[in-house]
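SUBJECT: A protein chain and its fold
Encoding: whole-number codes for local backbone shapes
Chain under study, with its fold:
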Amino acid sequence: MNPMQIRFTTSRHPARRIVAAGHVGFAFMLSAVALTVTLCGCVPRTEEDVVVYSALDEEFAYPILEAFERSVDYETSVVSKFDVESTKTVGLVNQILAEKDSPRCDVFWNNEIMHTVRLQKRGLLQRHDWPVPTDWPRDMISSDSTWCGFAARARVLLVNTKLLESDEQYPQSVNELLDPKWKDNCAMARPLFGTTATHWAVLRERLGDEIALEQLQTIADNALILSGNKQVAQAVSAGRVAWGLTDTDDAMIEKELGYPVEIVFPDQLPDQAGTLRIPNTLAVLKNAPHPVAAHRLVNYLIAPQTEDRLAMGPGSQMPISKESKFPPAVLPDKPIRWMRVDFEKAAENWETWNAQVAKIYAQR
């Protein structure tokens, strides 16, 4: 999307618009909304309006937000800001931080978790009574009820089956990224942004800073380092490397396109940590301009029906709710051992940790 482009999509209310923005400044976006309202009729901003910053891709989030508008028996307008770059979560979080003294965002829909926890630690999120069962996984809801996780992706190994013809040859652990036998024949995304950064923040909390940094240095020297998880999945499907660490949604796209690839859920042995899953997260901003509508929207989004929609999509995201009725295609027949995680601990001293990782990977 061109940085100066903004696209309007008509909602069910003729005089209202759902707005999808790229890099465009929020002030410009609201000016454009005001112009559209002027052209279509005078519609005042009300408590039923709600502003969403979404790191989940527009093609997936927009239909769900539009469905929310249709689901209520009163007029509600959703104004959505999407950022389309690979660092989109960071961009949206920086926008929220810049607006902290006068919030414009009501709801933050993050397609991962670490930066949501950063906002929690800065006191920028509002407590919410999440309508989830008491057995909701503890790592999927914050200790202070300011965010809730749902519709997860997993960190998996994608294998090229032409280069590794037998499943006995497949890597089975994330630690194999350090193994010299895979030198220049495995891949990982640069661990400065997105789920790869979250993954290593989690491993750092388990291993300690020193060991985690040593491992990251070894991987930097041993593996092909690419700009993102999508690029890792494409490198595997093209046969550039035999395997790579990526996310289930990027892996599923290559598999559905018919490339010779298979997905391995790593670290499943009893003495291993299990596979890491990283959820979407929802949060209401503290001092949100439209708190009533914001709380109403997150209650709608956290429902099993939303998880089912995301599970049925090409990303095959994995529901957290036991009431979900649609098993995603990415899951194997046998149960997965999930890594036990404390995301709040993993986010501690994030800025210092990220700066240390950047020294290793900034030029790669």
User: Anything to note?
Assistant: Residues 1-44 have pLDDT under 50 and may be disordered. The radius of gyration is 21 Å. The first strand starts at residue 6 and ends at 10.
